[in-house]
Structure formats: structure tokens, C-alpha cells
Amino acid sequence: MKGTHPSPRDSHSSTAVGSKLYVFGGTDGTSPLDDLFVLDTATNTWGKPDVFGDVPAPREGHSASLIGDNLFVFGGCGKSSDPSEEEYYNDLHVLNTNTFVWKKISTTGVSPIPRDIHTCSSYKNCCIVMGGEDGGNAYLYDVHILDTETMAWREVKTTGAELMPRAGERRARHIILLWGM
């Protein structure tokens, strides 16, 4: 591998954008991070692009989903003003993958409560957020959908057997793994 690669980390997001892999945030085991690295898989070269705009606060356990050329980053946790405490987020930021400009997005509707280690999948023009952990160590089982054209959230009211609360689930292309913790 060539170029400037990310430092060791966990709880980051990795999102495929064409032949590139966007790695954002996470933690080095001591502090949450807010850096962005891009791996060009065609040339096996890492880069650390200059980013502009409203960069999200350092965070780990967030989600990232791609819709068009936009990378939607939701939630996660970071340090509060008291460094011994964590702050859980339910904010939404979008990175334009062509210009590397971040925007903090104002939304309407019923947004998910602050959380980390949730999953967020994209389908057409929507981001679907499910599960995670709230700031009180409770696992969640709710489902929210963000329409990225109107930036409006809605909570999905489900029927039938209730999902068990979960966190740490993973997804890939057409597969969602629901086991989690």
C-alpha cells in the first residue's frame, strides 16, 4: 500500500464509493477521531483529502451510507465537554464525495434518539437506521427512515413479533445481519 494511511482504529465507518473506500472517524482506543481517508483500490493508494465545511465532531460507532455521490453520516458517540463522559449523537452530516465538502443537515419529522453501534442502510433515496445503543447502555430495536430528498425522518411502526433490541449488527450490499449484541 502506498500513500498516507489511517492510524490504527476501530468503530469507524468504511464505505465503498466506486473503486474507492472511504474511512471516517472511529477511535484510536483513547479518543474519538474525525479524520477521513480514501483508499483507491485500483492503485492500492491511500490518501487523506482536504475536507471543507461542517466536519462532524470526532466520533465512533456512527453509521455511513452512500446515496448518489453523498455519504450520509449519522449518530455515534464522542467526548462531551467533560472529558470523562461520552456524548451520544443523533445528528446528520453529508459529505459530497466529489468536492469533499461536509454539510450539517437540518431534518424534520421524528428523528432517532442519540445512539451508537447502530446500522444504517441505503435504499433508493432513503437511509434506514435500525437498533444501536443509547447513552444509558440500553439496546434499541426501533427503525427510522430518512427521505434524503425532503430530509424528513419517519419512525416505522412495526407489527407482529417484536425485534429483540440489538447493536453492532452489520450489513453488506444485499445482506443485513441481524444478530448483533
Question: Considering DSSP H and I runs of 4 or more, what fraction of the residues is helical?
Answer: under 10%
Which secondary-structure class do the elements indicate?
mainly beta
Strand content: over 45%
Number of strands: 17
How would you spell out the order of helices and strands? Answer: EEEEEEEEEEEEEEEEE
Poorly predicted runs of 5 or more residues: 172-181
Sketch the major β-sheet.
5 strands, mixed
Number of helices: 0
Mean pLDDT value: 90
Side by side, the strands of the main sheet go: 1-5-4-3-2
Rounded Rg: 16 Å
CATH architecture: 6 Propeller
Shape: globular
Question: What is the number of independent domains?
Answer: 1
CATH topology: Neuraminidase
CATH class: Mainly Beta
Q: CATH H level: which superfamily?
A: Kelch-type beta propeller
Spatial separation of the terminal alpha carbons: 33 Å
Pfam family, one: Kelch_KLHDC2_KLHL20_DRC7
InterPro entries: Kelch-typ_b-propeller
